[in-house]
Amino acid sequence: MEGKEEDVKLGANKFSERQPIGTSAQTDKDYKEPPPAPLFVHGELQSWSFWRAWIAEFVATFLFLYVTVLTVMGVNRAPSKCARVGIQGIAWAFGGMVFALFYFTAGISG
């Protein structure tokens, strides 16, 4: 029992100063960290690809809201239950618009 206590004392006193833990302990890196990317680049406002992506996102958002809100409004204003699309029709409208707009704008805006 005494030998174990001596081993613990020896282990505790082996490093007198505190050692860093985690990523700060990795001082000898074999790579150099790149500088952080800027959040906003002023030259980007002059590129056509930026505005094309912005226009595509705007049109897609407008169409999504237009079609889905009109579908919900049509359910509430229908004169009878047979004339309205119902909950499943609303789900199909949302899902179909998400699919179509992702398909058409993914190549433009990413």
SSE layout:
Elements: H1 2-13, H2 48-77, H3 86-109
Task: Describe the structure using short key phrases.
110 residues, mainly alpha, elongated
Description:
The protein is mainly α and 110 residues long. Helix content is 60%, strand content 0%. It contains three helices and no strands. The protein is elongated and about 85 Å long. The termini are far apart.
Roughly how many Å apart are the termini? 67 Å
Pattern of helices and strands: HHH
Low-confidence stretches: none
Largest pleated sheet: none
Please summarize what this structure is:
The protein has 110 residues and is mainly α. Helices cover 60% and strands 0% of the residues.
